## 1
Amino acid sequence: MTSSRRRVAGDRWTLRARPAFLYMMYGLLLWSVPLGLVGGVRPDVTAGIIRAMRAYFNALPEPLYALFGTGYLGYTAARAWGKAKGVER
C-alpha cells in the first residue's frame, strides 16, 4: 500500500519502484507458461531459448546480483523496522 504522504509528496520513483519489480517478477512467472507449451511441441526450440537466457544471465556480473540482493534485503529490513516502530503503516 502506498501511504497518502507519498502521494502528496509526488515522489513518482517511490510510487513506481515496487509495482515495477512485481510486474517484472509476474512477467518471468508468466513466461514459463508459453515456454512450457512450446517445449511440449518443439523441445529443440525451447532448448535454444533456455540456452540464450542462461547465456544472458551468466553474462551479468556477480557484483550486480550482490547489489540487488543487498538492496532488496536492506529495503525489507528497513521497512519491517519502520513498521515495528510505528513510523510506517
## 2
Amino acid sequence: MPEHFGYTNTIFGTQSTVNGAAQDYAFGPPVGGTWRYTGPDTYFVVDENTGASRFNGDPTNEQVSAQEQIGGIGQQTTEIGGIDRQIIYDYTFTVTDGTTTWRVTVIDVDLNNDDDLNDAGEDGYFLIFPDGMPPADTNLTIGGIVDNLDSIAHVDLGASIVCFAEGTLISAGSHTIPVQELDTGDMVETRDGGLQPIAWIGKTTVVAKGDLAPIVITKGTLGNDRDLVVSPQHAILLNDWRAELLFGQEEVLVRAVDLLGHDGVYRKTGGTVTYYHILFDAHELVMSEGIWTESLYPGDMTLQSVNPRARAEITELFPDLAQYGKKAAPCLRAFEASCLLRAA
C-alpha cells in the first residue's frame, strides 16, 4: 500500500527573496544575507512507495535518481495541476531574527518529469519550515546549510493525516464496530443525520514518529468511554460556554494536536500506526469511543492527504467537490484552541 506524507508550514519558493531578489535554490543562499517571504502558507503531499519513511534526495546533483522516477521502485511524486510530478529533497538551511532560528528545507519538483531539476522554477519549488512558520514580511538573516544528505526522514520535516487509528470503536446505533471492520455502505451513527451509510473508507499505515505519531485522549478526558487514538489533525467536537463567549459558537471542532498540553492528552510514539479515513455524503460527526469526532472532509488540503488511488475514488464519487457542503461545525485554528483551553 502506498504511503503519503502531507506537509503544512510550507510556501512556494517564489514567495521568497534573498537580498531583495529572487533566489535560485539550486545553490544555497549566501550566509549573512537577508531572506524574507510574503504571502500565505500552502500544503502539499508526497506520495511514496509502500513502507517508505524517508524523503529521498539527489545523490547525483540536480538529477532524479532512477528509483525515485515515476515507475521506479522508490517512486516519489506530488500532484500539481492534476499531474503527478517527481519530487526530491534537496537541502536545509537556517534563517534567524537574532532570537529564534528556523530551518528552511528546500524541496525540488521536476515540473516536466524529464528526470532533472535544471528547468526554471524546479529548484526550491516548495520551502518547508520544520520548526514552524517564521514571520512573513520580515527580514531574517541567513545561516549556513545544516543538512545536505541524500535523504531525510519525513517525520523530521513534519507531515500529517486526518483519520482514526485502528481499534477505534465507532457507534452504529445499537452497537459499536471497530473501525477496521467497517466497509462502504455500512450504517454509522451521526449526530445530525442519524444512521448514515459510509460512502468511502480508506487506510494508511505510517511510522508513529514525530508529526505522524497519534494523539491519545485518555479515557474520561473529554467524556470518552475508552482511550481515543486519532491522527494529529483529526478534530473533536467540544461543547463549552466559553467557546460561545470567545467565538460566538457553543460547539466547535478542535484538532487533536491542539489539545496537547491538556491533562490526559499525549502523543504516542513508537512502532507503526494504521489510520482509517471515513467519508460520508456530507461532513458528519460520528460517535467514536463515546464522543463526537469528525469524518473525513474532502477539502483541498484534506484530499491531498490521501494517496492517488484513494483521491481518484473520492473524486469519482464526488465529481463536484465544491458542492460537498460545509463542515459540521466550525474548526478552531491553533491559537484559537489555545485561547479556549486556557480559559477552561
## 3
Amino acid sequence: MAKLILCDVAGRSGHQENSASMSQANASTVTEFFIVGFPGLLPKYFPLTAALFLCIYLAVLSGNSLIVLLFVIERSLHKPMYIIILSLSLSDIGFCTVALPKVISRYWFNDGYISFDACLIQRQLIHYFGTLNSLIMMIMALDRFLAICYPLRYPVLMSNRTMKLLIGFSWVTAMIAPTISLMLTLKLPFCGPNMINHCFCDSLSMNQLACADASLYNLITFGVAMFVLLVPLSFIIFSYASILVSVLRIANVQGRLKAFSTCATQLTIIIIYYIPRFVVYITSTIPNAQLSSSQRIALAMFYSLLPPLLNPFIYFLRIKEIRQLFLKRCEQRNCVLCSTVTISK
C-alpha cells in the first residue's frame, strides 16, 4: 500500500514537471506581435490614415529640426530657457521616430508585424520619452518660477551650466520608471494572443496579452505612471501658482502682461500634454468609466502627437526672439538668392 502511494506521488510530481515544462514552452511561443492600430477602421481608410500619420511625422520632424538648427547656428539662443526648448524638441523627434514609422507601415503596406524584442524596445522608448517630457516640463516650470519670482538672483541660480546639468539628469533618470515597468512585463508569460490593440507597443496593451493574471503588474505599472505624472505636475502647479501671486503684485500693467505672455506659452504646452493623459490613465482603472479601445487609442494618439506637432508653431508665434531670428535667416537667404540670380544674369 505504501509503495502504491509513493508511486502515485512520484507519478503526480512527474506529471506536474511535464506540465510546467509544457507551459514554459508555451510561454515562449509568441515571437512577434501585430499592431492592430484602430480596431474599427475600415480597410478603405488605411491609405488615408497612413498619409495622415506620414504628414504628422514630417511636420514634427521638420518643425522641431528647425528649432534644433536655429539653436546650433545662433549663439544668442544659448540660454537656459532655449536649452529647455531644444531638449523638448529632441525628445519630440525621438518619440515620433519610435512611434510612427511602424503604424505608417501597418496602414500603407499592411505590414503590422513587429518582433517580440522590437516591441519591447519600442515600448521602453515610448514610455522613456513620455517620462522625459514630463521631467522637462517640470524644469520648464522651475525656470519660469525662478525668472519671475527671483529675477535678480535668476542669472546666478539658473546658469547655462546648471540648466545643462538638470536636463542631463532628466535624460538619464527618465529611463528608471520604464525599466521598472519592463521588468514586470518580462515576468509574464506570452503564449497565444499577439494582437496589440494600439498604434504602438505600450505597457497596458502588452500586459493584456499575457497568459497569466496581470492585474498586480498593471496596478504597479499604474502606480509608477501616476508617480511620473503627478510629482512633476504637483511642482508645476506650485510653480505657476507662485508665479501668479508674484505677477499680481507687479504694479506695472505692462510688466504683468509680459509675465503672463511668457507663462502662457508653456502653460498651453503643459495643458495639452497632461489633461488627456489623466483621462486615459484614470478611465483605465475605473470600471464604470472605461473608454472603448478606439476611444482610448484616439485619445492616446492625440496627447502623444499633438504637443510635438504644435510646439514649434507655439515657439515661433509666442517667443519673439525665435521668430525674429527665423525671419532674419529667411531674409539673409533671400538676399543670397537674389544676388546669385543677379550675378547669373
## 4
Amino acid sequence: MNPKISDFGLAKIFSSNDIEGNTKRVAGTYGYMAPEYASEGLFSIKSDVFSFGVLILEIIHGKRNSSFHKNGDFFNLLGYAWKLWKEERWLEFIDESIVSESHASDTMRCINIALLCVQENAADRPTTISMVTMLSSESIALPEPKHPAYFHVRVTDEEPPSANDVTMSALQGR
C-alpha cells in the first residue's frame, strides 16, 4: 500500500527512472507547492519533500500556511517559523495544545527537519529517504537550514488602506 496525500496527475508525466521533469500545466495548492514547480513548472524528487515540510510546520503550529497572519505582519507560516528559528525563539512557534517540556527536543528536531524540507533551493532539501532517517534517528546530527522559500514580510508601520481612505471616482458618459 502506498499512502498519498494527493495526486495532481504528476505520476503520468514523471516516470520512475526520471529524477526531475517539467510541465506547462501547474496543478496544486499554492503554499504547498515547491517554488520551482509553482513558478516554472519544474518538479523533481524534492517537490514532495517541500510539501511535507509545510505539513510538518502546520501540524506543529496548528495553523495552515495558506491563511497565516501574525500580529499585523504578513508572514507566511514558513517565514514565521524561520524568523523564530533564527532568533532561537522556536518554542513560541509550537501550538499550545502540543507544548510539552518533555518533548521539546523532539519538537525542535521536527522544526529543524521541516525547515530543511522547505529550503528555497531544491538541491539543499533532503531526499525523502534522508528525511525519514532524520525523523527516525535522534543520533543523526542535523544541518542548519538555509532560507526557506516564500519568505515575504511586509515591514512597515503603515496601516493598510481601508475603504474610508480610498477615493472612488465614477466616469459617466454625457
